[in-house]
Amino acid sequence: MFRRHFIAAGILAVLAGLSRAAAPAPQPHSPKTILVVGDSLSAEYGLKRGSGWVALLEARLKAQKIPATVVNASISGDTTSGGRSRLPALLTQHRPSHVIIELGGNDALRGLPLQMTQDNLKQMTLSAQEAGVKVLLIGMQVPPNYGKDYAARFADTFVSVARERKAALVPFLLAGVADGPNPTRMFQADRIHPKEEAHPIMLDNVWPELRKLLK
User: Fold this and answer.
1) Does the active-site annotation cover 29?
2) What digits encode the pLDDT tens for the residues 142-186?
3) Under CATH, which architecture does the 31-214 domain have?
4) Does the N-terminal or the C-terminal CB of the chain have fewer CB atoms within 10 Å?
């Protein structure tokens, strides 16, 4: 009786040892994937390829030896509605660890309801977070000719979504570009799209918040 118990215990111990030996060794963290869902400000509109802030982000990650790749899924002219409809497939296809949402400017240019813009941004953020993805919202501001009240409510749209969803936020992508003493010199002839020399500034606006998320 006792002998059978000892034998059984010995067999279990051997099996447990084999199980531990067969278990795969812990793997290092896989490289991060940063998905950028934006509009023309992120799609290098009017610029030579590789000179926009998203391409500069790739270069900075490499220079700082941060194991991350960047997928730029930005489309010129895109709105928050377009981004919302595209995001689920992008999450499935690329399985990012981080998503940068840079949308909303075209909503304002088209006079779309602010509530719709806010709802779209909120749903995009929620969808990404439910997939286990960290979200960075990129805020935008409108020119003074839109009126102070509208400008304030538009800017607050991004703040409200970030606060509600506890997402990271860059309040204004074009800080230091559109609000300088002579902002027109930093823009292309259409006065909407920044020139190449503005994009390092734009990256510097994004980088501090993104760097926190990457840690």
Assistant:
1) no
2) 988 899 999 999 999 999 999 999 999 999 999 999 998 888 999
3) 3-Layer(aba) Sandwich (3.40)
4) N
98 is a catalytic site residue: no
Tokens of 78: 């895109």
What is the amino acid identity at position 14? V
User: Which DSSP letter does residue 189 get?
Assistant: T
**Nearest CA to 137 among 156, 151, 111?**
156
Domain spans of the chain, in order of start: 31-214
Alpha-carbon distance 103 to 110, whole Å?
13
Distances (CA, A) of 29 to 26, 85, 116, 129: 9, 30, 38, 20
Q: Is 30 a residue of the active site? A: no
| 197/53 Cα distance (integer angstroms) | 10
The Cβ-side half-sphere exposure at 98, using a 13 Å CA radius, reads 24
Catalytic residue among 39, 40, 74, 78: 40
Q: Which of 5, 19, 149, 190 is catalytic?
A: 190
- Please give the single-letter amino acid code of residue 84: R
